[in-house]
Automatic annotation (TrEMBL):
It comes from Paenibacillus nuruki. This is Methylglyoxal synthase. It catalyses: dihydroxyacetone phosphate = methylglyoxal + phosphate. Substrate binds at H9, K13, T35, G36, T37, T38, S55, G56, H88. The gene is mgsA. GO terms for molecular function: methylglyoxal synthase activity. Residues 1-139 form the MGS-like domain.
C-alpha cells in the first residue's frame, strides 16, 4: 500500500476526476490524500476514500509537502494549469522542490500521470517499500 496525493488547479479538476475514475481500480487499496476541493470532487464521483487537507491556496500544498519532507508520500499527481497565474505559486514551487529533494515521483500533466499510474499497477513502485522499511526513526 502506498501513499498517493491528488492536487489539481481549478481548470484541471474535471481532468483529474476523469483520470481517477479511469484508474479507480489501481488507486483502490492505497492511502489517498488530496487538497480540499479536488478530494471532494473525486469522492463525489468514485467510491474512493480520500484524506482531504486544506485547499491549496489555504495551505493544502504545504500539508502534503510536510508528508513529502517526512518521506511519507510515495506519489503525487498534481495537474497544474500552466496558463493561469496562481496566487500561491511559492507554495507550489516549494512542494515541487521538496519532491525533488526526497526523490518522490510527481506528475504535473495527464501524460506523466498515466505513465506513473501504469508503473504503480505493474508493481514498479516496490523500491518505495524499501524506503518505508528502512526509514530512519525521527530524532
Amino acid at each position: 500500500m502506498f501513499n498517493i496525493a491528488f492536487i489539481a488547479h481549478d481548470r484541471k479538476k474535471d481532468e483529474m476526476v476523469n483520470f481517477v475514475i479511469a484508474y479507480e481500480n489501481v488507486f483502490d487499496g492505497h492511502q489517498l490524500y488530496s487538497t480540499g476541493t479536488t478530494g471532494m470532487r473525486i469522492m463525489e464521483h468514485t467510491q474512493l476514500k480520500i484524506h482531504r487537507y486544506l485547499s491549496g491556496p489555504l495551505g493544502g500544498d504545504q500539508q502534503i509537502g510536510a508528508m513529502v519532507a517526512q518521506n511519507d508520500m510515495d506519489l503525487i499527481i498534481f495537474l497544474r494549469d500552466p496558463l493561469m497565474a496562481q496566487p500561491h505559486e511559492p507554495d507550489i514551487s516549494a512542494l515541487l522542490r521538496i519532491c525533488d529533494v526526497q526523490g518522490i515521483p510527481v506528475a504535473t500533466n495527464i501524460a506523466t500521470a498515466e505513465i506513473l499510474v501504469k508503473a504503480l499497477d505493474r508493481g514498479d513502485f516496490a523500491w518505495r517499500e524499501l524506503v518505508h522499511k528502512y526509514k530512519p526513526e525521527a530524532l
